[in-house]
Amino acid sequence: MKKITSILIISLVFSSLSFSQEMSAYEIQRTKINALLAERSAKFGQYDESLSARTGIFGFQTKRDIKNSNEILRQIALTDNEIFTQLKVLMDYKDLQVEQVKTVASSNSESILNYRKTIKSLQEQNIILTENQDKVENSRDLAYLMMFIFLVGCGVLAYLFNLKRKKLKHYETKSF
Description:
By secondary structure, the protein is mainly alpha-helical. The chain has one domain (2-175). 91% of the residues lie in helices and 0% in strands. It has 3 helices and no strands. Helix 1 packs antiparallel against helix 2 and helix 2 runs antiparallel to helix 3. The longest helix has 113 residues, at 63-175. 4% of the residues are buried.
C-alpha cells in the first residue's frame, strides 16, 4: 500500500512539474499542497487499516502492530508540518502578488496623474498661444490700417504738393 501511494504521489509530482512550467509560482505551490493533502489522506487510510490490524494471539494487537500504527501517525504529523510550511509559502506568494498589484496600481495612478498634469499644462500653453496669436493678428491688422493711412496721407500730400508746384509754375509763368 505504501509503495502504491508513493508511486501515485511521485507520478502526481512529476506530472505537476511538467505542467508547472506553464503555471505561475502560486499555482505550483497550490499543486504541491494538493499533493501533500493527497499523501496525508492516503497515510490516514493506512493508519485506519493499521488500527484494525490484529496479528496477535486471540485477535489482539501486537507491539509490532502498535509500532506500525505509531509510525504511520508520525508520518501523518510530519506531512501535516510540511503542509503548514507549504501553506506559509503559498500565503507569502499571495502576499507578494497583492503587493505587486498594489505597486502596479500605484504606478498606474502616478502615470495617470502625470498625464493629467501634462494635459493641463499643454491646455494652458494652448490658451496662451491662442491669445498671443490673437494679439499678433490684431497688431497686424492695426499695422495694415496704419500703413493704409500713411499711404493715403502720402498720396494726399503728394497730390497737394503737386498741385502747389503747378500753381507756383503757373504763377511763375504769368509773372514773366
